[in-house]
# Entry
Amino acid sequence: MTIGDIGEGATLARIFPLLPASRRTLLGPGDDCAVVTVPDGRVSVTTDLMIEGPDFRIGLSTGYDIGWKACATNLADIAAMGATPTSLVVGLAAPPSTTVAFLEDIARGFHDAATALAPGCGVVGGDLSTAPVVMLAVTALGEFDGTEPVTRSGATIGNRVAVAGSLGDAKRGLDILFDRAVAPDGTVDPVAVAEAWASHPTEVAAQLRPEPPIAAGRSAALAGATAMLDISDGLVLDARRIATASNVAIDFDLAAVGDIDSLTGGEDHAMLACFPVNATIPPEFRVIGRVAPGSGVMVDGVLFEGRGGWDPLADYSSASNQ
Amino acid sequence: MTIGDIGEGATLARIFPLLPASRRTLLGPGDDCAVVTVPDGRVSVTTDLMIEGPDFRIGLSTGYDIGWKACATNLADIAAMGATPTSLVVGLAAPPSTTVAFLEDIARGFHDAATALAPGCGVVGGDLSTAPVVMLAVTALGEFDGTEPVTRSGATIGNRVAVAGSLGDAKRGLDILFDRAVAPDGTVDPVAVAEAWASHPTEVAAQLRPEPPIAAGRSAALAGATAMLDISDGLVLDARRIATASNVAIDFDLAAVGDIDSLTGGEDHAMLACFPVNATIPPEFRVIGRVAPGSGVMVDGVLFEGRGGWDPLADYSSASNQ
# Structure
């Protein structure tokens, strides 16, 4: 049974009961808008597209994985401001030949990610349409409960730089999947995907079903973090964003960071935060460097020039992991 | 020059200065999230996908038209709750071969629609990616400033039913464009599009560059509207939604409504509202019916069974206006 067979109304009727509810809902799905409470009068908002091709491959990812990751990555952007995610709206487009079961699987992944990573955060509305590929457009809202937003620009010299969450596993997982399960013409071998899950569960899960440390973002804000972001394009590239916005340098201790994948691999969705020397750093974080005078990113005191990260407009090719 | 040539960062640097600013911005684009103030602690949120194919054709619509309509239709959903639009986030995906000029044109349409229809509302964030077709995912936020959200479920027997904005023009405009400018194989004749604009400016503009009466939504809320929605799928279909949600019937006066296109044509983005008999109906609205006992939609006292509206999953075909 496809979504083209049963149409928009019947598809929505199947999907909505599977989605997580928000504790901040005044008015949920079914009207022109949802209405959400924002207790302290400030709402954080972020939006991300997740598109079949540049962002995922069906076969490497199940519908459940796609829903999970779309939810988790948006929650991470809210957490990286020091906010608590409260609600999500989801635009979903897919070819009419897509099965209803596949969309239900996406909804279940969404549900389980929100429930596991940000209890109380739920889907309050959405839109459903058709497109040549599967694509999700997720917008997340968050609340601050009295603290100030933690931006990229507040790092000061002497701050300790700390990270919560794993570094490099997502990149290693992607490499494993492409090495073993994607042919040169882009076709996916489902048996090899299953084998990759079995042999490297941590790395494959970090890539396909990431678990960003959502609560750590809020903990960092409460502990006085001066700057923070979600590492989506690789530690170095994202640290450079803090360095540039704050007009400082960031110097990493390579032994604390780990290896080269940890420095440059993307899609970690770990929280990178800067803390004053006298702050009590929350237990989810480990110190991996410090804020120094100067500009750019250094590793053990030496300027790191590597690029890291990728550009979806310039770099995407269907037959590689770039 | 294409977006694939210059990449994400350079494309965003070209687009962002063209976008409208929001008066509610605490923190604008460039961090993990934007932060927006919500003075009375309640935010309305709506999201819509606009996808090349089911929602627009390049050639019929310019980039400017696409940006304008994506903005205007989301503003209308906010207005239909009795709220004031304050901010928008925009996900945009397009093939790498898309010109930067086309995306700039979309941004200008977005700017001009927000400025004309909801001054003070602006774009606070977004995402840019690649897809086989052009698609926009817009999420709009609104504020209530102390009034209650106007839902679909509050209509009571005896209420007057009124509409602000045009009915039927958008459908007539679509018919004119497809009759004259779209060949059976789906190709668009640009000269015929220009001629349609010249001969039927009201109808073509209603379809390609709609001007929903955004301020009328807020006026209706302040005047005590009991139920309201944005007419997106046709007057009858959307009125039936109010009737069902409110457990009443709605009886239209055909002479006041106009003709059959006004009853069933979609994409009007007019505001349909119900008012108590003793309310002072705002001047943007004209009375076209009343709330009656029973269920469903009637025209001059006779139950109207016609469907109206369309289903993007079940009905879309690339060579017709459905």
Summary: Chain B has a mean pLDDT of 94.
